[in-house]
From TrEMBL:
Family of this protein: Belongs to the PlsX family.
Name under which the protein is recorded: Phosphate acyltransferase
Free-text function comment from the UniProt entry: Catalyzes the reversible formation of acyl-phosphate (acyl-PO(4)) from acyl-[acyl-carrier-protein] (acyl-ACP). This enzyme utilizes acyl-ACP as fatty acyl donor, but not acyl-CoA.
Lipid metabolism in keyword set: yes
Underlying gene: plsX
NCBIfam families noted in UniProt: plsX
Principal EC category: transferase
Domain of life assignment: Bacteria
Source species of the chain: Qipengyuania aquimaris
GO BP: fatty acid biosynthetic process; phospholipid biosynthetic process
Pathway: Lipid metabolism; phospholipid metabolism
InterPro entries: FA_synthesis (IPR003664), Phospholipid_synth_PlsX-like (IPR012281)
An example molecular function term from Gene Ontology annotations: phosphate:acyl-[acyl carrier protein] acyltransferase activity
Length: 345
């Protein structure tokens, strides 16, 4: 089955064209039905395509030399949306020339452009940035919001829970995802008024395709005890960076420990299968591809430092959301439970 083509912002990210094209090519080798609209400098894109036979016939190039800088303010980038590779990739989704857009560029700029071009779905106040994180269980956990909204009220949190559960059903196959709100404790009396009000609404709701299980503390996010963690963007971004930092700390500490002496180096050789498994589990490229949920279209944010494998995973996330029609799933869930009435409780 063919899919709508995916618009790739070839100029975004730390490595730019080379890695973005290499990642798209890797995704196509895994799934030969993928087709692409590659947005960026045509000369550089053609040079990169020459290294990947078969990609040229599956791709169209939209020439654009203007790039959104990594430190550029979203307000300034938004004014240049019609001339930048990021803006044109998102606009291709709006115009129906692509089914989804993938960019490794400036997150704030990508959110601003996506929200302006695609608009928020009816019944939703705000989109949210969601990503998959590894756990010790059999499931990955979806966490949202991870930075799109610094402040959120109870209504926003309830809507994020509905969106996160819809996404979880696609990626985990679980019919009733286990949903929890991020909080400073698991007792019902803990947390802000908005968190408690959101919990009350989710407990009282009927018709939701999820099991709301109360609160989760930050140190339990990766235990595998829930499928969706819901929070405001400020708290979520801090928690995500702390998790990523802890993972890098562990891997760097192991490297230092195993290189400290001859005995340690021998111990590394003995334990190498275990350390390789740990490295694979903690590698962010294996879970790359954050999604802006709640828009009238699919936009996936790849980590700026992602390698080709990470970019390929982000492309595959976009394809899977297209295949499973995430936008209509969220709309259906909101309609079944009366999204506005639920969130207003």
């Amino acid at each position: 089955m063919s899919l709508p083509r995916i618009a790739v912002d070839a100029m975004g990210g730390d490595e730019g064209v080379r890695v973005m094209i290499e990642g798209a090519a890797l995704a196509r080798r895994r799934h030969d039905r993928f087709k692409f609209l590659l947005v960026g400098d045509e000369t550089r894109i053609k040079a990169a395509l020459a290294e990947h036979p078969g990609m040229a016939e599956a791709s169209e190039i939209l020439h654009c030399e203007d790039v959104v800088a990594g430190d550029e303010k979203p307000s300034r980038a938004l004014r240049r949306a019609k001339t930048t590779s990021m803006g044109l990739a998102v606009d291709a989704v709006k115009r129906g020339e692509a089914g989804a857009a993938v960019s490794a560029g400036n997150t704030g700029a990508l959110m601003a452009m996506s929200k302006l071009a695609l608009r928020t779905m009816p019944g939703l106040d705000r989109p949210a940035l969601a990503a998959l994180l590894p756990t010790l269980g059999d499931n990955d956990v979806i966490m949202l919001d991870l930075g799109a909204n610094r402040e959120c009220d109870a209504r926003n949190l309830v809507q994020f829970a509905i969106m996160g559960a819809a996404y979880s059903r696609i990626v985990t196959g679980r019919e009733r995802p286990r949903v929890r709100l991020l909080n400073i404790g698991t007792e019902e009396t803990k947390g802000t008024e908005d968190i408690q009000a959101a919990a009350d609404s989710l407990r009282a709701a009927s018709g939701l395709s999820m099991d709301f299980e109360g609160y989760v503390e930050a140190d339990k996010i990766n235990r595998g005890e829930c499928d969706v963690v819901v929070c405001d963007g400020f708290s979520g971004n801090i928690a995500l960076k702390a998790i990523e930092g802890a993972a890098r700390f562990v891997t760097d500490l192991l490297k230092r420990a195993f290189s400290s002496s001859i005995r340690s180096k021998v111990g590394f050789l003995v334990s190498r299968p275990a350390t390789e498994l740990l490295r694979h589990h903690l590698d962010p490229n294996n879970h790359n591809g954050a999604v802006f949920l709640g828009l009238n279209g699919v936009v996936v944010k790849s980590h700026g430092s992602a390698n080709a494998k990470g970019v390929a995973n982000a492309v595959e996330v976009a394809a899977r959301l297209l295949e499973d029609d995430i936008t209509n799933r969220i709309a259906k869930d909101l309609g079944e439970v009366g999204g506005d009435e639920l969130a207003a409780k």
